[in-house]
């Protein structure tokens, strides 16, 4: 296809003009040019155009092959993956031998490259550690892990095609994921491990519609051992997973962490640090945080805690609440409650399993305190089944989060105007679509007929 060939030319030029100080605008211009070709290809596919699935998959492979042996330019996560993998291969414990620890300082791995947060124990669960160790064993350097990630990404495409056929949708819709420039660059160039978790979530989706509940539950548990998000996606499937299968999740998690138990309190220290301190490119969470900061309920809440402590005996345990009533913590609590409420709504309405997984993934991304560009890879596969103009647009605009890469040399907190340019069109398009759907539904229902006045029976005159 001509558009695919043009996209490949754009990827090649992008590869030879990587982003960095003074070059970030050129990268963004190239990315959006490629993304424009992608949008045209998506329009053709959704418009009913014929296409050969093999050509689509073949070009998807070519796109990824273009980047797989290139040094990552958008993120420094891959060097940390390699560090953890080599520690595990050497018989060490990656939850103990983090770079700034005494055990980590003794290592000499100059070829790994620089990365941030060396003082933080690894945040990655055991299944991710297995992937890192397997990639590190392949070598050389960073490329073994990238090769595994790309292979897993191609498996995502294969499972997506099978899922599309299962649901009676055209197989060429796989192009929505396979050709998406965000999927290509974040997986094949930056080497992010989202395809590993995405693959397991898709397998869970296939098995849940085939009523293989135990397999689906195990797949989601395994996905949660790559990254945490799949564990939260069990919520929309609760009506389709019998209670006897739910213990699979804690058992799988316990067995996976058991070989690393010597880390003790450090086992989850990295995840706690991530949950407590990390913020970045947030969407709805940023709005909630700003609103709570403006209302400033912290002094009143601390005064209420002090009042209870003074007047009620044996309430010393409430002292811990003082550190949880700052605006940032209140915003996290509010967004967590919103996610829980949305999950309960999905369960109550008995939304279909695939749509439930799609909606829950989107809600978690929008409510999360951290929404790096590669996190949006989780939503992309569902767009093949439920095409959404706002989300497709979002998958392109999210790279604006890299706009400050030229000033810092690596991705960090975006400029203040970035969130408006990044999320504004998404919410505008989504709101307009919702309004059109409501108006169309009202028009289809027809004008409301006036209700007849109630007839009041009067007693007969005597």
Mean pLDDT: 88
Q: Structural class from helices and strands?
A: mainly alpha
Q: What multimeric state do the chains show?
A: single chain
Report the end-to-end length measured between terminal Cα atoms.
Answer: 90 Å
Low-confidence stretches: 455-462
Sheet having the most strands? none
Order of helices and strands: HHHHHHHHHHHHHHHHHHHHHH
Radius of gyration: 25 Å
Shape: globular
In which range does the helix fraction lie?
55-70%
How many β strands by DSSP?
A: 0
**Helical region count?**
22
Give the DSSP E fraction (strand runs of 2 or more residues).
under 5%
In short:
The protein is an all-alpha fold.
Can you characterise this structure?
By secondary structure, this protein is mainly α. It has a domain of 312 residues. The longest helix has 30 residues. It is 62% helix and 0% strand.
Based on the model shown, name its key terms.
single chain, 462 residues, mainly alpha, disordered C terminus
Topology, pairings included?
Elements: H1 2-16, H2 24-46, H3 53-68, H4 77-89, H5 102-105, H6 126-138, H7 143-166, H8 175-178, H9 181-189, H10 194-209, H11 213-224, H12 229-232, H13 248-257, H14 269-277, H15 284-295, H16 298-311, H17 327-349, H18 353-367, H19 380-385, H20 389-397, H21 405-408, H22 416-445
Helix pairs in contact: 1-2, 1-3, 2-20, 3-7, 3-9, 4-6, 6-7, 7-10, 10-11, 11-13, 15-17, 17-18, 20-22
